Amino acid sequence: MTIVFNLLALSGYQGQEVYIENVLLELMAKTKETPNKWKIIVVTNPQLKLVNFQKFLNAEIIKLPNCFPYNRRFINYSLGQLFFPYLFKKTPIDIVFSPTPLFPILYGKRNIVTIHDCAFRRFSNEGKSLGRLWLHLFTIAAKIIAHKIVTVSKFAKKELEQLYQIKPQKIEVIYGATPKLPQVSQDFIKKVKNKYTKGTPFFLNIGASKPRKNLPRLLESFKIFSKKNPEFKLILAGKIDKRFINIAEEIKKLGLNRSVIQTDFISNKVKSALYQGAEALIFPSLYEGFGLPILEAQSCGIPIAASNIPAFREIAGKGALFFDPNNTEELALSLKLLASNKKLRQRLIAEGFKNLSRFSWKTSIKKLKNIFQEISLK
């Protein structure tokens, strides 16, 4: 069976990229057990920097030339429709798996399409109108054409059912699991901590500066907290993107230049060190389909304060302190509790470790392979 992974619409290293990287790693590890059963082809672009899949048995990489702006949805739409028939003119394809809604329509029922959430419908201030339109149209196309739509939480499935009237049986929930963060020494953790905070305690936030990430309210809450706790810092780790909100300006307005640090893009090694050195992960999003940082933080043994949105309650279980993301005072109180209440911290850490047992890449791959089998039998 030949399975093509269509990664043309990916270009960074955020939730979607982390999800598909771990899916591929686990799936291709399985192909070593049955090398004659699965043939995996990965179609990618030069801007996508994931792990080297070629070290795995039975994986072929097709990388398109570095002559297109791959971060533009229209280009990815065109490439997905035009290049696939050309690339695979002589190669029979059984399945095309796309980790975004932008899938090659000509392959009809051989498509499995991943839709992580419906933020493009819920937040008109995230992304350009044309980009959101493409996602909307391809979601409708997936509803009509694809064999199966994969999503990452029960909440995200409910969104697709409500917003697009997609039949429940067409949507498969396949959770992510804890990404494989590199092991780091205590010396390296200390080095990273000294670099960003000179060794003082800090809260950590992971993610891009999109409006739904709710960072301005996090800054306001941190200012309230820091009046009585001036030794604490706040690290905003993730790619700085000024298209939506200029977080540096927000930090300056609130007079937090000395206590809030923006890292921009960081490596997995540095991210692992920040998790292990942090007092807690603070995740104030207004909307998410999943929340991989929750599982990362739980695996690193730190407590979490998260907004009480449906996806976070589903994913974090009892391993997080929940707050109203629209309530600045409540978020500030959460920071205070995590900084001072030792019993609460210990309980959240213990519940976090328990919660991780619900998530496994092996289980996710088993569900994905069942979908592959459905298509192969048709």
Ordered list of secondary-structure elements with their pairings:
Blueprint: E1 2-6, H1 15-31, E2 39-44, E3 59-63, H2 73-87, E4 95-98, E5 111-114, H3 119-122, H4 129-145, E6 148-151, H5 154-164, E7 171-173, H6 186-197, E8 202-206, H7 215-226, E9 233-237, H8 247-253, E10 260-264, H9 268-277, E11 280-283, H10 292-299, E12 304-307, H11 310-316, E13 321-323, H12 328-340, H13 342-355, H14 361-376
Parallel strand pairs: 1-2, 1-4, 2-3, 4-5, 5-6, 6-7, 8-9, 8-11, 9-10, 11-12, 12-13
Helix pairs in contact: 1-14, 6-9, 7-12, 10-13
Key phrases:
globular, alpha/beta, 7-stranded parallel sheet, 6-stranded parallel sheet, 13 strands, 378 residues
How would you explain this protein's 3D organization?
Helix 10 (292-299) packs across helix 13 (342-355). The strands form 2 sheets. This protein has a 7-stranded parallel beta sheet with strand order 3-2-1-4-5-6-7, with helices on both faces. Strands 10-9-8-11-12-13 form a 6-stranded parallel beta sheet, with helices on both faces. Helix 1 (15-31) links the parallel strand 1 (2-6) and strand 2. The protein has helices spanning 15-31, 73-87, 119-122, 129-145, 154-164, 186-197, 215-226, 247-253, 268-277, 292-299, 310-316, 328-340, 342-355, 361-376; strands at 2-6, 39-44, 59-63, 95-98, 111-114, 148-151, 171-173, 202-206, 233-237, 260-264, 280-283, 304-307, 321-323. The protein is built from 14 helices and 13 strands. With 378 residues, it is of the alpha/beta class. The longest helix is centred in the N-terminal third of the chain and has 17 residues, at 15-31.
